[in-house]
Amino acid sequence: MFLLSSGRIIKFSFQDIFRNIWLSIVTVIILALALFSINMLLVVRVISQASVEAVKDKIDISVFVKADASEEKIINLKKQLENLSGVEKVDYISKAQALEAFRQKYQNDPNIIQALQELGNNPLTPTLIVKPADTSNFDVLINDLNKINDDIIESKDFTDHKLILERINSITNKVSDAGMILSLIFVFISVLVIYNAVRVAIYTHRKEIAIMRLVGASASFIYMPFLLSGLIYALVGVLAIVALFYPFLSLLQPYLEAFFIEYQINIIQYYNSHFLSIFGLQLAGAAMVNIVASYIAVKKYAKV
Amino acid sequence: MIKLVDVSKSYTPEVKALDGVNLHIKPGEFVSIVGQSGTGKTTLVKILISEEKADEGKVLVGGWDITDIGQREVPYLRRQIGVIFQDFKLLPKKTLLENIAFALQVCGQTPQKINSIVPHVMKIVGLEDKQHRYPHEVSGGEQQRAAIARALVHRPKILLADEPTGNLDSINACEIIDLLLRINQFGTTVLLVTHNKDIVNRLRRRVITLDSGNIVSDQKHGKYLL
Q1: Both A7 and A81 in a single domain?
Q2: Interface mutation target, options B106, B109, B155, B160, chain A, most CBs of A under 10 Å
Q3: A163 in a domain, yes or no?
Q4: A119-149: pLDDT as tens digits
Q5: Same-domain status, A75 and A132
Q6: Taking CB atoms and an 8 Å limit, are B103 and A216 in contact across chains?
Q7: Of A28, A42, A95, A112, which residue has the fewest beta carbons closer than 10 angstroms?
């Protein structure tokens, strides 16, 4: 009996979808467009987060060492810095490496290269570049660095860095908050759009629902085909968005690579690695909205 | 078969659609309920199929007290009463055969039983060659026949016909009434709600006349009085 009823409910649901094919197509298109806008917002968030991370990645602290400091003392200082809790890594740039990098940087500026040659010796000092583990705990790191009292340190004034970091962290938080609010607004609008599309689809079936009641159809027999149709619309809508969005991402990717030239931002890889959570969540959300909308709409017309 | 005891129903405090109606219809009767528009005929049908509930009084259908019937029991009541309407109320996206079969499918009948009952009922109403047509592809008379067939598949003891000829020409109307008479001959109680004077006078069966929610006349072999 249960199998018979379930089979009929599935049959009626598919029959209804195909016999009202244009209405079904329009409902799925509206659903897919709503999901497309949500995915667009997700892409914007991923890119904005990647931009912030790229800026944070640029932040490091240079500890300038006296030119006459011995290699052994510099290595000891490097180890001391590496042992600090807020430090991710410390790179040692020797005098020779600093000179080479300087020459590379100004190879197209003959005046600077000539001035360097006229000096005769290497004027640059060895540098230890400290990469912070977490930019939000920058205060602690600067305090720790200020406590190190080694006579080979030429300069250890980090005040400017602190100010810049504070600004970056403030911008990051604001971007994150704005993104969250924008996301919620988008999700809310999408939910309303999907909800309305489903209600309109069921409105066209109001006479059928009343007739079903009149011929003695039980509540489950009236509700279930519509709830199942809602589930199918959600599934088809998400499949459509998967099929549409990947080509869109493929078009977008070269522009992202060109823009973030020194950083690896791969939006397709991001979607691939988060496929289940992104589209699974969208399917669950769309299915839930569809089912709730269908239930409320059918309830309204099934009161006969 | 149908018993109404002091049944009243109001949609607004000022106007009573039914006002203390007492009615007893025996099994196998063919009863016409007549009256002008707004006299409470359709309200009576709605109460009998539990589309509306009486404000006061008691309603019994086939010995079942449906006065305070629960929502879950309504489908079971409707499977015991066949109902046809002026506007046929067929599902537009289903063929005539599917429309008729649907009434059996919703109550869990097996495909074997559906396949044996539906063609038989379609033959009774003369639609055996139009099984796979959609409602919009057949005439009004044929749509009403399909509606009657749908009402008959449960072998109901009562058939309620609410203005079944209202949308039909006189020839089709006569055919539908003849069909209802044949169904009545098989033992089904038929309750015909109409304001078609010619039909009521031709039938010469029991006629109940309603006026302003009251029964003003109940004649065993009556005529249309108003």
Answers
A1: no
A2: B106
A3: no
A4: 777 888 888 888 888 777 777 787 888 787 7
A5: yes
A6: yes
A7: A112
Q: Which range has the top average pLDDT, A197-206, A242-251, B166-175? A: A242-251
Domain co-membership, A185 together with A254: yes
Q: Quote the pTM value.
A: 0.69
Q: Which among B105, B118, B152 is the top mutation candidate for probing chain A, defined by the most A β-carbons within 10 Å of its own β-carbon?
A: B105
What mean pLDDT is predicted for residues A78-92? 86
Q: Is A208 on the interface with B (CB under 8 A)?
A: yes
Domain that holds residue A35: 2-55+168-301
CATH code of the domain covering residue A141: 3.30.70.3040
Say if A60 falls within a structural domain: no
Total domain count for chain B? 1
Please report, for the domain that includes residue B220, its CATH number: 3.40.50.300
Residue A161 falls inside a structural domain = no
Nearest residue of B to residue A2 by CA position? B108
Residue B216 lies in a domain: yes
Give Dmax over CA atoms of chain A in angstroms. 103
Task: Strand B189-194: give its sheet, edge to edge.
Answer: B81-85, B158-162, B189-194, B30-34, B206-211, B214-219
Chain Cα centroid distance, residue A107: 39
Tokens of B163: 């203005």
pLDDT, one tens digit per residue, over B185-222 is 989 999 999 988 888 888 889 999 999 899 999 988 77
Does A23 share its domain with A93? no
Do A178 and A259 lie in a common domain?
yes
Contact B89 A219 (CB under 8 A): no
Map tokens 């006296």 to a residue. Answer: A66
Q: Which whole-number Å values give the CA distances from A119 to A66, A109, A114, in the listed order?
A: 18, 16, 9
3-state secondary structure chain B: CEEEEEEEEECCCCCEEEEEEEEEECCCCEEEEECCCCCCHHHHHHHHCCCCCCCEEEEEECCEECCCCCCCCHHHHHCCEEEEECCCCCCCCCCHHHHHHHHHHCCCCCHHHHHHHHHHHHHHCCCCCCCCCCHHHCCHHHHHHHHHHHHHCCCCCEEEEECCCCCCCHHHHHHHHHHHHHHHHCCCEEEEEECCHHHHHHHCCEEEEEECCEEEEEECCCCCCC
Domain membership of residue A19 (yes or no) is yes
Q: Return the number of other C-beta atoms located less than 10 Å from residue B206's C-beta.
A: 17
Domain total of chain A = 2
CB pairs under 8 A between A and B: 54
Q: Per the domain annotation, does B14 fall within a domain?
A: yes
Domain span holding position B216: 1-80+158-165+189-226
